[in-house]
Amino acid sequence: MSADSSAPDRIVIVGASLAGLSAAKTLRAEGYSGVLVLVGDEAHRPYDRPPLSKQVLRRDFGAETTLPQPADLDIVFRLGMAAARLDRTERAVILADGERLPYDRCLVATGTRARPWPNPAEAALDGVATLRTRDDSERLAQRLRDRPARVVLVGGGFISFEVASVCRELDIPVSVLVRDAVPLAGAVGAPLGGFMAEVARGAGVDLRLGASIARMEADPRGRLAALVLEDGGRIETDCLVVAIGAARNIAWLDGAALATDRNGLRCDRFCRALGADGLPAGGIFAAGDVAHWPNPHDGDALVAVEHWGNAVAQGRTAARNMLAPGPDAMVAHDHLADFWSQQFGLTIKLVGLTAGADSFAVVRGSMAERRFLAVFGKAGRTVAAASVDSARWLPAYRAAILQGAPFPPLIGGLDAPRRIETQVLEDAAR
């Protein structure tokens, strides 16, 4: 088979995680009965990642967070073997051991990996870790069980704050080093980031803003012993978690003439991967964290979203479009980004994306009570809403975002502040 309008007989999904499994389930549910191959560089079957930085570290349950899958999916697994190259001419995925997997359709769902510490010698020290995979979580859980004198996290994102929260629950001293002036600002905006900074400090976290590591010190056996900061400060620790972001797994696509950059693999609204020429690359689709796609809720601005819900929804959309008889039968990916986090006894939920927001207002509850709902505006429209232990109103604001309602919408209500105060966000381009 060579024409994309023909029904596929063989589909290869590269990436054995949430987006890949979601696509596989959808393919079978939509009636696809051909060969279905799922490639993963880890030895484990697809598993759930959010618990790795929370429940697994607390030992609420083990790291075997395998995602459920029907017994009749009839998947050919190629696990523990990374994809090394994509041959678009011959329509084949080449694995690291040289095996060639021919495809009629290929879904790229290779996700991201934890960005390593930039100094390789320091990154290799015993006691320096990242947290992305099941194996990472198991190793870190064991270190926490051994009760280190102090855990240090470097990075101002959710992984840092979630692990810090677990450390405090376990009564382990913890320091968080954040290069920026406000943590979490990229995900939830500066006002909420500042709020979470105070929550963390109130829980006993040694939070240092505007801080960075100058060098690491090791003991004679190659184990981390201390950190020397740029300001001259020194922290003794034998457990450092590097949480400085994620890198998208696109290196294996080098030479395939696809539209890739640090944001991932560019795809159109139908999840079709684009070639370097900007046109759909025949038979190739993208979904999940690796995909760089046009957001219909923000004028088709390109986004790369590392959220659980998007991975599921985009995997489903890609699967349906892989089976479509032609472009006219394809459906657009129309997921409104959302995510949640638990830390320091609070549940944070957010719908929409705060990037580029120019205004912010608390419209239910109050920050002082640590129970509120806040909205973000951009050019007079409501573009995102976040709740802290107050998710009851979130569905209404999801609808307002989808409708492009004015900012701030839904004024009034029993638990609304008497006066809505809008903050102008200085860095609308962050």
UniProtKB/TrEMBL annotation:
GO terms for molecular function: oxidoreductase activity, acting on NAD(P)H. InterPro entries: FAD-oxidoreductase/Apoptosis (IPR050446), FAD/NAD-bd_sf (IPR036188), FAD/NAD-binding_dom (IPR023753), FAD/NAD-linked_Rdtase_dimer_sf (IPR016156), Reductase_C (IPR028202). The keyword Isomerase does not apply. Residues 339-408 form the Reductase C-terminal domain. GO terms for cellular component: cytoplasm. This is Rhodocoxin reductase. It comes from the Bacteria. Pfam families: Pyr_redox_2, Reductase_C. Residues 10-315 form the FAD/NAD(P)-binding domain. Keywords: FAD, Flavoprotein, Oxidoreductase. Its cofactor is FAD.
